[in-house]
Amino acid sequence: MSTLRILAGLLALLAPLVPATPLRWPQSAHGEILVGAMDWKWEEYFGDQRVVLESGLVPTLRTRLRRQYSAWRLGGEVELAYGAVGYEGALQTINGGQQEYSSHTHYFAGNGEATAGWARPVGRHGVLVPSVRMGYHRWVRTIDSDRFNEPGIHGYVETWQHATVQPVIAAEIPLPKGDQLMLEAGLRLPLWTAETIGGLGGTSGPIELEPGTRPAFRAMLQLRLGRILLETEWMSLAFQTSPDVTVPMRVRSPDGIVRTQEMDLHQPASDLRRLDLRLGTWL
Questions:
Q1: Is residue 89 within 8 Å of 99, Cβ to Cβ?
Q2: What is d(CA 213, CA 241) in angstroms, rounded to the nearest whole number?
């Protein structure tokens, strides 16, 4: 099923939640700043066999702006993450085989999202907010590295870019003393995904790959206690095996002669799962 069909069906389900007449809500705006860490888990598969596992904690910084205008809820957020995780599994060698290896992978990630929603009161004090979120996500993956963007002898650098549209529904539940609990869940529907590989030994330049992306589930819980914000968020992404790309590779034979031969390369099927914990404040 295509992304557009999935989105159309979800919007049809959310349509009854949008009130027919505008509600009289006050206007307000506030910003949020949160720091935390994400438990990052990246896996790659050839068929049913897992060949790569990367896992570890990566520090994060997230800023968010929320704006309430009448019943409209508008918002935007930016997130940065940087850190190293453990690498276990195998590297793809020049001759297309697999070599077991343990090392580290450095990540630098940046995400930007914009949201528009419409608030609807539920019960005496609760609020439901169906909304649509647009996102751009980019991460740079430096494999077999002691530092970012400097791969080791067996490593290389991957740059991933991913654009999404996300139907979301949030529930805001008031607590005593003006505190609030917010639950949010939705789907990340892929619009575009691209991967660029650089620094792979023997190649003459960057390699462009196009792995397919499946819809992904995302859920977040935020607890507001006075000026303190506590958040946890879970998300999963699944990437399909990319089509083969033929590239010229410089290979040194046993007799020491360097020859150029064509090789077929692709991105294996890959799964990303992340669990975030964050602490912050609102202004």
A1: no
A2: 9
